Amino acid sequence: MAIRMLVWIGMILLMGGAANWTLKMSSQFVCAVISGLGCFCLLWAAAFGSYQRESWQKAAKMGRKLLIVLTLLFLATFLFIEGLIINASNDDNYEGNCLVVLGAGLYGDTPSPALAARLERAVVYLEQNPQAVAILSGGQGMGETITEAEGMRRYLLQKGIGQERLYLEEKSHNTRENLYFSREIVLSLGYAADEIGVVSNGFHLYRAKSLANTLGMSVKGVAAPLPDILGLDMVCYFREYFAVLKMYAQNVTGLGLDRLTLSW
After folding, report:
1. Is the same domain home to 74 and 146?
2. Alpha-carbon torsion 28, 30, 34, 40, what sign?
3. Separation between Cα atoms, residue 201 and residue 177, nearest integer Å
4. What are phi and psi of 201, to 5 degrees?
């Protein structure tokens, strides 16, 4: 029964990953994670299945040992990385005058719940610090009719934040690019790369600050709470584990960084 359930779960995840890829409903990274989890379930089912041939029994036994090692490795790295994520999720008590608000998706031209939470946090900070400016960072992605930066600008204008305090960064498509292209605007405004407050949800701050360090920036986190949606925090923290792994891999290999030319 358990083996059949693993097979069904694996097939559902594989088909879900393929469907998301075909219909462009999610990023390539998300599709890869979904498909990878599906393959993992199928491997577990194959390794713990019943076989009549002795050669298959031996192969299954070796497969079980390998999967147990991989599972323990996954659990160890998961707990370690989640600890880093949680430790960096609190507000850093930033007191400067230059915010970078990181994009988090639009539904058409409407901010997603996570992005709306970031914008509400930015509104509070900007109202408390009248001299502060905000760089709104995010290009246009799947299912978005405008850039995320433009969507954020409209939201903040409706909240009473002056247009003269808002600067748009509309070229980026991920967190690393958010920071890379925002850095150019920060410097053009006369601020130093270590005078920046990054507004994002708590689960995202570890990766944002780590990426900033690789770009020669020393930033402080301005934490926005996640919306009170059932299960959203668990999904975000779980997904962030894989995003951090991807960040580590890119830092080592340089793959996927073709758009960035580091000249500092």
Report:
1. no
2. positive
3. 17
4. -70, 155
Residue 63 identity (one-letter amino acid): G
Residues 79 and 155 in one domain: no
Residue 263 lies in a domain: no
Together in a domain, 158 and 219: yes
**Whether the Cβ atoms of residue 139 and residue 162 lie closer than 8 Å to each other:** no
Phi/psi at 94 (5° precision): -65, 140
pLDDT of residue 221: 97
Say yes or no: 117 and 42 in one domain: no
Reduce the DSSP state of residue 72 to 3 states and report it.
helix
226-234 CB contacts, 8 Å cutoff, 24+ apart = 226/114, 226/117, 226/201, 226/202, 227/113, 227/114, 227/116, 227/117, 229/113, 232/113, 232/114, 233/203
Domain-ending residue, one of 45, 64, 87: 87
Low-confidence ranges of the chain (pLDDT < 70): 1-3, 6-7, 10, 13-14, 16-30, 49, 51-52, 258-264
Pair (148, 81) in one structural domain: no
Type of residue numbered 179: L
Measured in degrees and rounded to the nearest 5, phi and psi for residue 167 equal: -125, 135
Helix (H) or strand (E) holding 186: helix 175-188
Type of residue numbered 155: Y
Q: What percent of the chain has pLDDT over 90?
A: 60
